[in-house]
Amino acid sequence: MALKVGITRFLGTNCDEDIRKWILAKKFQAHYLWYEDRFDINDYDMVIIPGGFSHGDYLRCGALAAHTPLMKSVREFAAKGKPILGICNGFQILCEAGLLPGALLRNDSLKFKDQLVHLTFKNTENPFSKNVKPNQKILLPIAHGEGHFYAESDQLKKIQDQGQIWLTYDQNPNGSVFDIAGIVNDKKNVCGLMPHPERALYNWMGSTDGEFLL
Amino acid sequence: MKIGIKIMPREVNLDSQGRAVEQSMHMNGFSEVKDCRIGKYVEMNLSIEDREKAKLQVEKMLKEGGLYNPLIEKFEIQLM
């Protein structure tokens, strides 16, 4: 049975079609989930929250999206231990929704960084690292203005001790604490990362390493 | 009734906007700026007339509605 993937769509989401193309290329089923609607968590095997500028990045990045009816179902999906992947703005939304610890702040340079970055897998015990070896390095593009991951020191210690640091930057582009590019929740079913795996699938994209995540 | 909410970043080292403005002021000759922090001010018009009830609802919006992020921000409610 082909994996059924739900792809969230908020106002201002713009990476949804790239995610859909990735899902379909893997011969999975792709369904869009609209921000105003609830969904039955039994209808999907996986949920992906794509990047973009949801709700204009108004108030705080991901803040308004985190408080939509759709996210109520996403929370239930997470509570059931089912896999959720948040990419870029999706990562921001998961943090604002409290499904991942911490917050994403403005890049230290104050510049929007649009470049390929080398990353290291620090932990691979999650649904999106099945094809990965520990400490494996990959190359993925980033494109963000608010990617500085921040958490308080006691929260950070927990994240470290519980193996929740998923990916780190080899050369930190935004000031994220502990060079964190991606983290997972304590149950290790909800994963968020700032880089875009869906933009590293074919040679002409500059890297095919996005393939390692699904 | 109208209420105002001042939302500020919690710690100086998280406020990159404030730093940018500080640097800009210095560049423009305003060396007296020792530091600068930037937040946001929200003005709301509520259909509630009772001051205490209004304050409670706004606190609910802040804490449950996501109007502020307690990890990185703090707030002050100003009843007008």
Description:
The complex is a heterodimer of chains A (about 210) and B (about 80). By secondary structure, chain A is α/β, with parallel strands linked by helices. Chain A has a single domain, classed as Class I glutamine amidotransferase (GATase) domain (Rossmann fold, 3-Layer(aba) Sandwich). Chain A contains 5 helices and 11 strands; from the N terminus they run E-H-E-E-H-H-E-H-E-E-E-E-H-E-E-E. Chain A has a 9-stranded mixed β-sheet, sandwiched between helices. The model of chain A has no long low-confidence stretch (mean pLDDT about 95). By secondary structure, chain B is α+β, with helices and mostly antiparallel strands. Chain B has a single domain, classed as 2-Layer Sandwich (Mth169, Chain: A). Chain B is built from 2 helices and 3 strands. The longest helix of chain B has 13 residues. The interface between A and B is medium-sized, with 17 and 10 residues.
H/E element sequence of chain A: EHEEHHEHEEEEHEEE
Compute the number of helices of chain B.
2
Biggest interface: A-B, 17 and 10 residues
What is the beta-strand fraction of chain A? 25-35%
The H-and-E topology of chain B, N to C, reads as: EHEHE
CA gyration radius of chain B, whole angstroms: 16 Å
Quaternary organisation: heterodimer
CATH homologous superfamily designation of chain A: Class I glutamine amidotransferase (GATase) domain
Helix vs. strand class of chain A: alpha/beta
* CATH homology-level superfamily of chain B: Phosphoribosylformylglycinamidine synthase subunit PurS
CATH topology of chain A, by name, is: Rossmann fold
Basic shape of chain B: elongated
Query: Main β-sheet of chain B, in a few words?
Result: 3 strands, antiparallel
